[in-house]
Amino acid sequence: VLELAKGFRGKKVHRIARDRVAKALEHSYRDRRRKKRDFHKLWITRIGAAARLHGLGYSEFMHGLNRQKVELNRQLLANMAILDPDSFKSLADSVSSLPPLKVSLLMPFFLFF
Amino acid sequence: VSKKWYIVDATNMRLGRLASTIAYYLRGKDSPMFTPSLDMGSYVIVVNSEKVGVTGRKRTDKLYRRHSGRPGGLKEETFDHLQKRIPERIVEHAVRGMLPKNRLGRAMFRKLKVFKGGDHPHGAQKPEPLPI
Predict the structure, then answer these.
(1) Is A49–B32 a contact, with Cβ atoms under 8 angstroms apart?
(2) Are B22 and B112 contacting, i.e. CB atoms less than 8 angstroms apart?
(3) Which terms does the record give in the GO molecular function aspect (chain A) (predicted)?
(4) I need a labelling partner for B121 at 20 to 30 A (CA). Which of A1, A51, A69, B97 fits?
(5) Which residues in chain B touch residue A82, judged by CB atoms under 8 angstroms apart?
(6) Residue B77: per-residue pLDDT
(7) Based on the structure, what is the number of domains in chain B?
(8) Using one digit for the tens of pLDDT, what is the confidence trace for B96-114?
(9) Residue partners of B4: CB distance under 8 A and separation at least 6
(10) Domain that holds residue B42
(11) Among B40, B39, B48, which Cα is nearest to B8's?
């Protein structure tokens, strides 16, 4: 396979390039998986920041969303927070106006002690 | 994206807690536009930095160390002492430890402006008080 080692700094001699290309392919394999994780993290951070602007935190916000019969918002649609803040605000409002859960749900946690 | 300016009065605030929130804003994590690859955080001005507080016996016991790079060049200094000498550095040191330690982190650090006393030359930026 011809070295498609385009754009590599100074390593275009077949012998050396072979190794560098192998490494580059390793990196790209690994990072295709990493990329998914990285974006997930970013979305969560952004959702959290946006939620805080509305007096909630990421955890409360997502909890509220789940309670409303699984709003499958999928983090990517927290692009909404940037591009369409009004829709995001209405989501945040729908969460804040939920009635609080009854305290009895905390009982299972206390049984651990 | 234009960056906001904030101002905080350090008087009697707990060092670490203050530094933690400052770093948060310096990084820009308060905004949904947060982007880890760029510095889109806010500027923070700290005023009255000589009045920042610590609990317990830290005032006399907390040590700041630095090494000059030469053998045997470790130098210690107590909080108390440093505060009398260069009070701004206390806050700077605390915040710097809470920012990422890379090129971007250093750039973020430059957005922190610490002053002793109550005045600062950045009136033109109309800073708002930092929400704590």
Answers:
(1) yes
(2) yes
(3) rRNA binding; structural constituent of ribosome
(4) B97
(5) 32-33
(6) 75
(7) 1
(8) 989 989 988 899 999 998 8
(9) B42, B43, B128
(10) 5-129
(11) B48
Residue range A44-78, pLDDT digits in tens: 888 888 888 888 888 888 888 888 876 777 777 77
Give A16→chain B minimum CA distance, Å.
30
Q: Whole-model pTM?
A: 0.76
Is the complex ipTM higher than 0.85?
A: no
- Report the mean per-residue pLDDT for chain B: 84
Chain B residue set in contact with A, beta carbons under 8 Å: 29-34, 36
Answer yes or no: do B34 and A45 touch at CB < 8 A: yes
Q: What is the CATH number of the domain that holds B60?
A: 3.90.1180.10
List CB contacts (< 8 A) between B34 and chain A: 42, 45-46, 49
Hey, where are the domains in chain A? 2-95
Nearest to residue B97, comparing CAs of B16, B40, B3, B30?
B16
Return the CATH superfamily for domain A2-95.
Ribosomal protein L20, C-terminal domain (1.10.1900.20)
On the question of pLDDT at B68 being above 80, the answer is no
Helices A85-96 and A14-53, packing angle to 10 deg: 60
Closest listed residue to residue B19, CA positions, set B107, B115, B100, B90 = B90
